[in-house]
């Protein structure tokens, strides 16, 4: 058990190093491509995560940067394409609480599913996601609380979100198997 914790800590340090090295130039590239800083940050995070999950496939560090930029470019193109598919709808209510009973039921089901998925996360990830995504605590404040850099806090939040996504996918798969 202690060995697993040591390996996990080493992976977190390595991820933070990768993040610190590649994030800024990649995010600048994506921002110029997308003209939207928030979306560029999301695309950057996704590209970095994809590289990280494939880290065993890179023979040398010199392969990582070109691969990251190619993946980021493809993600930017996909993002632009998905934007063009979004069509405004008159059926979307202007205010929360409006809409039919089916819409309210869907929201309640989503909330229940997210709560179930959160129980699959570590206590640390649960607390960080609640602080950041529910209460809107800034990354620099979270970094100070955790005793890491702001980039480190962003990386941990990103991993927490990825774990939540995987937990949601497991729940979805188990529900579709049961149906």
Label the overall shape: globular
Classification by helices and strands: mainly alpha
Number of domains: 2
- Rg over C-alpha atoms, rounded to the nearest angstrom: 19 Å
Structure summary, number of beta strands: 0
User: Largest sheet at a glance?
Assistant: none
Give the quaternary arrangement of the chains.
single chain
Uncertain parts:
1-9, 87-92
Helix content: over 70%
Give the count of helical stretches: 7
In the CATH hierarchy, the architecture of the largest domain is: Orthogonal Bundle
Beta-strand fraction estimate:
under 5%
> Which superfamily, in CATH terms, is the homologous superfamily of the largest domain?
Winged helix-like DNA-binding domain superfamily/Winged helix DNA-binding domain
End-to-end Cα distance, whole Å, is 37 Å
**What letter string, H or E per element, gives the SSE order?**
HHHHHHH
In short:
The protein has 179 residues and is mainly α.
Describe the model.
The chain is 78% helix and 0% strand. It has 179 residues and is mainly α. The model is unreliable at 1-9 and 87-92 (pLDDT under 50).
Question: Could you name the key traits of this structure?
Answer:
single chain; Arc Repressor Mutant, subunit A; 0% strand; mainly alpha; 2 domains; Rna Polymerase Sigma Factor, Chain: A; disordered N terminus
Write the layout of secondary structure elements.
Layout: H1 2-34, H2 37-53, H3 64-85, H4 101-118, H5 123-134, H6 139-146, H7 150-178
Helix pairs in contact: 1-2, 1-3, 1-7, 2-3, 4-7, 5-7, 6-7
């Amino acid at each position: 058990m202690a060995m697993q914790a040591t390996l996990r800590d080493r992976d977190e340090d390595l991820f933070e190093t990768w993040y610190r090295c590649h994030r800024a130039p990649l995010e600048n590239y994506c921002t110029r491509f997308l003209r939207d800083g928030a979306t560029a940050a999301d695309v950057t995070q996704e590209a970095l995560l994809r590289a990280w999950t494939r880290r065993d496939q890179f023979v040398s560090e010199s392969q990582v940067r070109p691969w990251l930029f190619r993946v980021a470019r493809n993600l930017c193109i996909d993002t632009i394409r998905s934007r063009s598919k979004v069509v405004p709808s008159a059926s979307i209510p202007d205010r929360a609480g409006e809409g039919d009973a089916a819409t309210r039921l869907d929201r309640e089901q989503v909330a229940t599913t997210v709560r179930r998925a959160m129980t699959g996360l570590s206590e640390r990830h649960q607390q960080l996601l609640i602080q950041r995504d529910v209460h809107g605590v800034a990354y620099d404040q979270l970094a100070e609380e955790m005793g890491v850099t702001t980039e480190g806090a962003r990386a941990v939040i990103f991993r927490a979100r990825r774990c939540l996504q995987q937990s949601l996918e497991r729940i979805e798969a188990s529900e579709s198997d049961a149906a």
